[in-house]
Design goal:
Layout lengths: L1 H18 L4 H4 L3 E6 L4 E7 L9 E8 L2 E11 L5 E12 L2 E15 L5 E15 L2 E9 L5 E7 L2 E9 L5 E8 L2 E4 L1
Antiparallel strand pairs: 1-2, 2-3, 3-4, 4-5, 5-6, 6-7, 7-8, 8-9, 9-10, 10-11, 11-12
Length: about 180
């Protein structure tokens, strides 16, 4: 179960890296400013739907030189263009990338045949550090079953010192991790 959530989160981060790439010719964010100053200030930017991969979304926060920069919140839309709580990131951005301290939340659920997101009460949440759209540094990952990992990350994987807790709060494994694999005390 944890590997599935790590994979889904890794896909989210990979996708966000595509959305917020510095290469404006290849992967610029398309959409429109719907309020405020989306060049240099605070604003709300609606991200266009990409028929292949993305149902659109909304960024509310700070901008610098037309890019997400500073504190902001990014929320995804469902297939009908309505805001859903399935994927949400709130935290720091730098030059259009998720970068710095932030919180990513993913609710378990599914899209029905009309494109409406049906949410469950369970969620995956990561609170911690990001670098260039990838988990890097210290953080906490909380899983739907109540288990959690608290420790160091590198390139989206458990890497360095960390503790994995069972749903009842007892320690499952504590020590050194490499590429999300426990290596020992």
């Amino acid at each position: 179960m944890k590997k599935i959530w790590l994979l889904s989160f890794a896909l989210f981060l990979s996708f966000s890296g595509l959305l917020f790439s510095d290469d404006a010719d290849k992967n610029s964010v398309e959409g429109k400013c719907i309020s405020g100053n989306c060049q240099n200030g605070n604003g709300t930017f609606e991200i266009s739907k990409d028929s292949e991969n993305f149902s659109g979304g909304k960024y509310v926060g700070q901008f610098k030189n037309g890019k997400f920069n500073g504190k902001g919140t990014l929320t995804w839309y469902d297939d009908r263009g309505e805001e859903v709580k399935s994927f949400k990131y709130a935290g720091q951005f730098k030059d259009g990338n998720i970068d710095g301290q932030g919180t990513f939340t993913s609710v378990i659920g599914y899209f029905d045949n009309r494109g409406v997101f049906k949410a469950d009460e369970k969620f995956f949440k990561y609170i911690g550090e990001f670098k260039n759209g990838v988990i890097n540094g210290k953080g906490l990952a909380a899983y739907p079953d109540g288990s959690k990992y608290v420790g160091e990350y590198k390139d989206g994987s458990y890497n360095g010192k960390g503790t994995f807790y069972n749903p009842d709060g007892s320690i499952y494994k504590q020590g050194r991790w490499e590429n999300s694999e426990f290596k020992g005390e």
